[in-house]
Every structure is written in structure tokens, then in C-alpha cells.
Design a protein that fits this description.
Elements (H helix, E strand, L loop, with lengths): L3 E10 L12 E18 L5 E6 L5 E7 L13 H16 L8 E9 L9 H13 L3 H7 L6 H7 L4 E6 L2 E6 L10 E5 L6 H10 L5 H16 L4 H19 L4 H5 L7 E3 L7 E5 L4 H10 L5 E3 H4 L6
Parallel strand pairs: 3-5
Antiparallel strand pairs: 1-2, 2-5, 2-6, 3-4, 6-7, 8-10, 8-11, 9-10
Length: 313
């Protein structure tokens, strides 16, 4: 069999966090960095699967061999990633019983282009690539493994910004013209506390939130306004409204209040609050903006234009 190559883009969820699970429209951005997967084959009478994962610096951070019957590790270590790979491959086999049934040794190497702790979709890009390889639905696969709305799977295959929504339980999305004239005033700041998305989904699902349908409608409206905002002043108002609604509904403290109460621009939590990245706006010089966050101990400040994938590359 010929060698194969697969690739999925990372993701940033600009609006709709949490409530996207209940049908809110969400603005989601594929990133310029993602994860690749190479697959090689070799004839064998006792086939095994060798799995190797390489980080953004080229270092092998995970490696294991699996048998093909139940995808059990041949030399089990109890590693969390080892179990995750096994669970994904087992879920694939349920969708496609013919997956990996040939007399072939299989060598898989994944390569991630961003630090694992950044939370840009190391799991979702993995699931997307595996699904493409196995000819199964990535949305079904993520549902059977880590859960979530599926916006990250949509981002993995998107060429530019999308508006995502779960409608009657099914994922729907469309490309949107989100290319703000003020994009040079937008940055992403890494907060340094990687969140467990699956755990946050369960936590949110267990919450009893009053007026949830009304909140979903309000979030959807803000998403539409965000996509078409013409200036930074308007965009800042939308961000603040979005933060106020989510913080009030979930009883969470806003990231600006927690870390950046004296900041001149707006700050918006993304995805699972309090952990991975925050969106910040600034009408001041890039150097001054960067220095503010570095002085607070947040050294990863990435311009919007460097990390967000647009339709035209």
C-alpha cells in the first residue's frame, strides 16, 4: 500500500463557548498551525501497529506498539495517551469493521505544530486525521471519544473562519467573511492553564442554568454582530456583552477581572474559561501591548494575523 498523509488545522473559538453545546451560533477560527499524520505500510505475517507522536520541536513525546485485534498495547505502560489512542482506534473499528485487517505492519507518525499545552486542538486534529485515514465520520468519532459540539472538527477541515451551530443535534457550519479591518489590533494571550475540554463539557452539562434558551439566542446574536463588526469600538462592546452574559450565567469570574483589571483594551475568554488563550484588543502600539502582558507574567502574545487562517493564504 502507498504511504498516506493527513492534516488538520487547529482551532480557536471566538464566541459561543459552552452554549454552542445547546445550539448557540459560534464564530470559530481555524489556525495556521495544526497536526499532520503520516502512515506507512510493510508486508508482515504478524502485523503490528507502531505509533509515534512528535512535538513541535521535533521531539518524540509518545511511542507505543499495538496489536490489531483489540488494539491493546503490546508493552503497556498505563500512559494516558496510550489509552486514548487505543480508545480511538477501537471506536473506529466499530464504525468500519474492515479497518486495519490486512497483513501489514503499520507505522504512524503524528507531528503537532504547536506546544501541546496551548489547547489549540491536539485531540481534535488527531481525531480528524484518524477519521480521514479510516474512512469514518470524524463527528461520530469525537462523539464516541472526547465529546463536545464538533466545532473543532469543522475547524480542522476549514479554510477560513466559520459560523458553527448544532442544529437538532447535528453539526452545521458555513464560511463567513470575518476579516476585520482592525485585525492588527487583535491578539491572543496564552494564560498558561491548559483546560480539560471533556471535563468542562460535563461540568457545563450538569449545570442548571435559568433561561438557557434566551441566553443561546443572545449569544447567537452577538456572534452575528461580531462577524460583521466594522470598527474596534463596536467589537469591544460585543466582547464585553458576551463576557457579561457567560460570566453571569455560569457564575464564573471574567478573565479581565482576574488578571488584567487595569488593561486599557478588552479581554475575552475563549473556549473553556480560564485556561488556554484569551482574545485581547488594543489600540496601542504592538510593543506597548506586548510589554503590558509580559510584565504581568504572560509571555506568549500572538497577533491575530499570525495565527488565524484566512481563505487566502
Amino acid at each position: 500500500m502507498r504511504d498516506q498523509y493527513f492534516y488538520g488545522h487547529g482551532k480557536l473559538l471566538l464566541s459561543g463557548e459552552y452554549f454552542v453545546l445547546d445550539g448557540a451560533q459560534a464564530l470559530a477560527l481555524p489556525t495556521t498551525v495544526g497536526q499532520s499524520m503520516k502512515v506507512k505500510y510493510r508486508h508482515s505475517y504478524q502485523p503490528t501497529l507502531n505509533w509515534k507522536s512528535v512535538d513541535h520541536s521535533g521531539k518524540v513525546w509518545f511511542e507505543s506498539d499495538y496489536e490489531f485485534w483489540h488494539f491493546k498495547p503490546i508493552r503497556p505502560t498505563g500512559d494516558v495517551t496510550e489509552k486514548f489512542v487505543q480508545d480511538c482506534l477501537s471506536a473506529v473499528r466499530l464504525q468500519n469493521p474492515h479497518f486495519l485487517r490486512d497483513d501489514m505492519d503499520v507505522f504512524v507518525e503524528t507531528k503537532i505544530e504547536f506546544p501541546l499545552e496551548w489547547g489549540l486542538g491536539s485531540s481534535s486534529t488527531f481525531i480528524y486525521n484518524v477519521a480521514q485515514w479510516a474512512y469514518v465520520s470524524p463527528f461520530e468519532l469525537i462523539k464516541k471519544t472526547i465529546g463536545g459540539s464538533g466545532y473543532d472538527i469543522a475547524c480542522a477541515q476549514a479554510m477560513g473562519p466559520i459560523c458553527f451551530q448544532k442544529y437538532e443535534g447535528k453539526p452545521q457550519w458555513e464560511s463567513v467573511p470575518f476579516n476585520p479591518s482592525f485585525k492588527q489590533d487583535l491578539y491572543f494571550v496564552y494564560l498558561g492553564q491548559k483546560q480539560n475540554s471533556a471535563r468542562e463539557v460535563v461540568k457545563y452539562t450538569d449545570m442548571k442554568i435559568e433561561g438557557k434558551s434566551q441566553i443561546v439566542n443572545e449569544i447567537s446574536q452577538l456572534t452575528k454582530e461580531m462577524i460583521h463588526a466594522h470598527d474596534l469600538v463596536t467589537f469591544n462592546k460585543i466582547i464585553k456583552s458576551h463576557e457579561d452574559i457567560v460570566a453571569s450565567a455560569l457564575k464564573y469570574e471574567k478573565v479581565k477581572d482576574l488578571h488584567f483589571s487595569d488593561y486599557w483594551g478588552e479581554v475575552k475568554s475563549l473556549g473553556a474559561w480560564g485556561g488556554d488563550f484569551a482574545l485581547v484588543t488594543s489600540d496601542r502600539a504592538p510593543q506597548e501591548t506586548r510589554e503590558y502582558f509580559e510584565n504581568k507574567g504572560f509571555t506568549t502574545v500572538i497577533p491575530f494575523t499570525e495565527i488565524v487562517r484566512s481563505e487566502i493564504q
